[in-house]
Specification:
By secondary structure, this protein is an alpha+beta fold. 52% of the residues lie in helices and 20% in strands. The strands form 3 sheets. Strands 1, 4, 5, 6, 7, 8, 9, 10, 11 and 12 form a 10-stranded mixed beta sheet that branches. The protein has a two-stranded antiparallel sheet with strand order 2-3. Helix 7 packs across helix 9. It is elongated.
Length: 394
């Protein structure tokens, strides 16, 4: 047994030391595998950043109420009587005798993206002070909150980062009125950082909505509270609404974009992986052919099939790991904390930071190792099946 391991070690060392003689083939395999890992990690960083933004947005103890049949806030409407009925529902949390209820308008306005100079949609939300009670993670990072009844807005970090003219002190014209940016808010990387907030009553007046809103968020007393609100809404004939937890709502909004990312990025990485596998096979077959005399000599010296096969497989794995390291380094430098954006379910731009976690890096390395094993397996089998005379002839 000790002899076998010594033979495997010796055959492996010989193969690795001779890589320098096959620089072009080896480099081609490394670059091909690196590109696969790079593209795959790019798709995973996009997906991971997007999921992080959505996961941080919804709260299990906040209910969102929309008109029945509405898939998003932008195509919902609730009148004042419905708002009052819902605020009185059992299961709603009360603070100082007042229901924690946040009536909100959600609309889409134009902005100019810094990256392209082109117009893109931004979510504009009309809120009251109660909005902060159902979003405790939101804080003003710089400047201040808008004054009630004024043409002032606060913008999320994502909006400030991605769009022109929306930094602190900036001015923007919306619905025929000039607005001043008086604050930048942080929302823990959630989707709210892709929104602008203004006074609800000012927006209601500008858009002619009267006292109607598009969504009502209610802080509830836990899972039982959410169930109680749902039962109440279903039994009240004056209400024709859908009640979800905020977490459910944002999970539904995320599904379309997540499916799009997965349906484009991962198949592209798979196609590239097949190309890299072809390159790895070509490299390793070329390596076996060039090392024919080497392999034949080892066989004459009594080295067994296991030693020859192991030496070829380890060589393929070394090339794969080198490609994985190169691709991972490139992906971390380019994609980690890179700003990304996509279209949300409300047709506004969702800005988020792409990110790579250990799980994504492990997936990239696993793909590289798989390519290396498959790329080295068949050439390794071929090397063991060659006769000594054939190996020496090659």
């Amino acid at each position: 047994m000790f002899t076998i391991f010594r033979q495997i070690g010796a055959a492996t060392r010989i193969g690795l030391f001779s890589l320098n003689q096959r620089r072009a083939l080896s480099l081609a395999a490394i670059v091909a595998i690196a590109m696969v890992v790079f593209v795959l990690l790019g798709a995973l960083a996009l997906d991971n950043g997007f999921r992080h933004a959505l996961d941080n947005s919804g709260a299990a103890d906040v209910a969102i109420v929309l008109r029945a049949g509405s898939e998003s806030e932008v195509n919902s409407t609730l009148d004042k009587s419905q708002q009052d009925l819902l605020a009185a529902a059992p299961g709603v949390l009360h603070v100082n005798g007042q229901a924690v209820a946040s009536p909100e308008l959600a609309m889409v306005v134009d902005g100019i993206k810094k990256s392209s100079g082109k117009r893109a949609n931004i979510a504009l939300r009309g809120i009251t002070p109660a909005a902060l009670q159902v979003r405790p993670a939101v804080r003003i990072a710089s400047g201040r909150m808008f004054a009630p009844g004024s043409n002032e807005i606060v913008v999320g970090r994502g909006v400030e980062r991605a769009f022109e003219g929306l930094g602190l002190g900036g001015h923007v014209r919306l619905h025929g009125v000039d607005w001043t940016v008086v604050g930048i808010f942080d929302a823990g990387g959630s989707v709210f950082e892709s929104e602008m907030w203004a006074d609800l009553h000012v927006l209601q007046g500008l858009t002619g909505r009267g006292s109607s809103v598009q969504a009502l968020r209610l802080r509830v007393t836990g899972p039982d509270g959410l169930a109680a609100v749902r039962r109440y809404a279903a039994s009240e004939p004056r209400l024709d609404v859908t009640v979800k937890s905020d977490r459910e709502y944002y999970a539904d909004q995320a599904r379309l974009s997540t499916d799009l990312i997965n349906s484009i990025g991962k198949p592209l990485a798979l196609i590239m992986a097949l190309g890299a596998l072809a390159g790895a096979l070509n490299t390793m077959y070329g390596s076996v052919a060039e090392r024919g005399k080497e392999i034949g000599t080892l066989r004459i010296l009594g080295y067994g099939h296991a030693a020859v096969m192991a030496g070829t497989l380890v060589e393929a794995l070394v090339l794969a790991l080198a490609g994985a390291a190169l691709g991972t380094l490139g992906a971390c430098l380019v994609f980690n904390n890179m700003s990304g954006s996509t279209l949300s379910g409300s047709f506004s731009t969702l800005v988020f930071n792409m990110s790579l976690a250990p799980r994504q890096l492990a997936i990239g390395a696993a793909w590289a190792v798989t390519i290396g094993v498959l790329g080295g397996l068949f050439p390794a089998v071929r090397a063991t099946r060659q006769s000594i005379s054939q190996a020496l002839a090659e």
